[in-house]
């Protein structure tokens, strides 16, 4: 009993710890690092933002990250930039949105500039091709880890599991756009909620 009590008190203290102080420099630098290691498509940013700003600094919640990712994926443009803008806006307003967008995009701009200069040397280099195949393979467990971490904020009842399963099937086996899939999920949530403010089982 004593051990369990101590553990419960420790967990409560960890939950009550205030989030780390927010600063534009921290926002820029961490987003710069995230941009430098975002391989394998936009979904890999989710795992890094979750680790850096949800778990480590407590700037946002898992639910907020899910919302930013959903909207960022649905909007026109690059998912990474969209998600960064939404996150930065929630953290430090319009300036934060600009800082986050510039921070996450700058590594790609620098990399493309260097590759453009050295394109002939790396375009058909077999070592570069093999390295990129390894990077793409390594990104998969990172993305899956982020999905596992965020599932508690998204899959909260039977209804959410059904919507997730239906969206997965539609996205995988049809050519329906992500915008329509997300909009359909929102519509189902509104219609089946019943208009009484009650959560579905």
Automatic annotation (TrEMBL):
The chain crosses the membrane at residues 24-46, 94-122, 134-153, 159-192. GO terms for cellular component: plasma membrane. Keywords: Cell membrane, Membrane, Transmembrane, Transmembrane helix. InterPro entries: CHR_Transporter (IPR052518), Chromate_transpt (IPR003370). One of its GO terms (molecular function) is chromate transmembrane transporter activity. The keyword Transmembrane helix applies. It is found in: Cell membrane. It is a multi-pass membrane protein. PANTHER family: CHROMATE TRANSPORT PROTEIN-RELATED, CHROMATE TRANSPORTER. Belongs to the chromate ion transporter (CHR) (TC 2.A.51) family. This is Chromate transporter. It comes from Feifania hominis.
